[in-house]
Amino acid sequence: MRSSTEREEVLRKAYRLISQSEEGIIQSELWRKLNISSRKASQIVKELIERGFISREKVLYRGRWTYRLISKREEEGIDLIKDAYCLICPLEPKCSPEEPKYLIQCKHLENWVLRKYDEQLKGKSLDEKK
User: Fold this and answer.
1) 3-state SS class at 89
2) Where are the domains positioned within the chain?
3) Which CATH number describes the domain made up of 4-73?
4) Strand order across the beta sheet in which 25-26 lies
5) Is the pTM of this model over 0.70?
C-alpha cells in the first residue's frame, strides 16, 4: 500500500491535470496520464469530489458513457477571499513575510478564517444530508 505522502502526490497530480483544461478531462484519460489502474483512478476521483476540489458529469464520449472531471476551485476565484478583512485593513501594508508580527496577532484574520472553516463544515454536513 502506498504511503499517505505518495497518495497525496497522486491526488495533487490528478487535480493539476483536471484543472489544466477549461473543459475538464475524461476520467479514462486521467488514469492513462497518471499511469494508474481505472480502479485506483476511481478512488482518487471519489476523494477529490469529497474534498470539494472537482465535480463530475456524465457525458457521451466516442460513443460511450463516461465521466468528465471538472475543477471546482478555479470557479470560485476572487469570491474565495472577497470578504477577508485584510482587503480593507489599515494595517495591511505592515503585513509581510519579512515582518509577520501583525499577521500572526491579527484577530480579524483569525475570526475570518474560523468563520470560513465553520461555513465549510456546515456546507459539508448539508451535502451529507442530501
Assistant:
1) coil
2) 4-73, 81-129
3) 1.10.10.10
4) 25-26, 64-71, 54-61
5) no
The residue among 14, 16, 24 whose CA lies nearest residue 66 is 24
User: Nine-digit cell at 121?
Assistant: 463544515
Q: Which residues fall within 8 angstroms of residue 70, CB to CB, at 6 or more apart?
A: 18, 23, 24, 54, 55, 56, 57
**Contact yes or no for 28/38 (Cβ under 8 A):** yes
Tens digits of residue pLDDT in 32-89: 999 999 999 999 999 999 888 899 999 999 999 999 999 986 545 566 667 777 777 8
**92 Cβ neighbours under 8 A, 6+ residues apart:** 86
Copy the grid coordinates of residue 59.
457525458
